Task: structure prediction
Amino acid sequence: MAQDIVVIDDDRVTSSMLKKVLSDNGYNVHTAFDGESGLQLVMKIKPALVILDMLLPKIHGADLCQKLKAEPELKKTKIILITAIYKEILVRAESRKWGADLFLEKPINTKELLRWIKENLDEGKIRDSSLPRIKIEAVDIDDVISSLKDLIKDE
Result:
């Protein structure tokens, strides 16, 4: 089942590009062009991910991010803040306090975005499940091969 993603950005070029890239990769993408309609859309759909521009009409992106993270029914929803304006390191640090899971500057590197989504949404289904977590440590392949040869010799 395809996961829902909401893109909230008043820049229609960015919204269209994100919708195409994400749709082409199997996600259901919904768009809004201001903070107020974005809030309503997110509350209705309850998506796995919200991609949210910082500078929006009606509700600022930082305020909207905090509102969404305060909603109990959106507890597992990931939020990516995007911006072409706020590029200071201080804003990047503040974005974590607002509840953002990732902060990206425009123009967006779609390969980086898709990699993050696959790591944090798709694999997150396994991480959130009741399956036990397995810790894998680095191994020396020569030791493994040697051990396997010893086992074969003993049989």
The chain has one domain: 4-154.
